[in-house]
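INFO batch 0412 | record 1 of 1 | parsing
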Amino acid sequence: MNELFGMLTSQLGVDSNQAKGGVGAILNMAKEKLSEGDFSQITNALGGDVSEALNAAPAAGDAGGGLGGMLGAATSALGVDMGGLGKYAALAGAFKSLNLDAEMVSKFAPIVMDFVKSKGGDGVTDLLKKFL
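INFO prediction complete | emitting tokens
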């Protein structure tokens, strides 16, 4: 996981707490959206222990989460494909709590996806593509 955190801090200019919290927010979403078996495939690809990232993630009710979560839910419920924007909106509140703007979600996602692909292959990456 430290390798991923380092990539995020160097490529995006975020601090280590923001990197950990952003990955944690993505993992929390994965945990909500995927079966336990699918989620464990992702955590195994990340080295197994993802507690540092999960612990750094903002709580679901933290500031700003409401609007982003509602937008994501509304676009999903309506079947609207916003090219991933609706999916990213669900993470926007968590990122806001980390003092990151919503556009950072779309910058984090490809780095996390590429990292997971390098560690776990296409099958594990496909699991993330279901919600990212």
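INFO post-check: Helices lie at 2-12, 16-33, 36-45, 51-56, 65-77, 85-97, 103-120, 122-129.
INFO record closed
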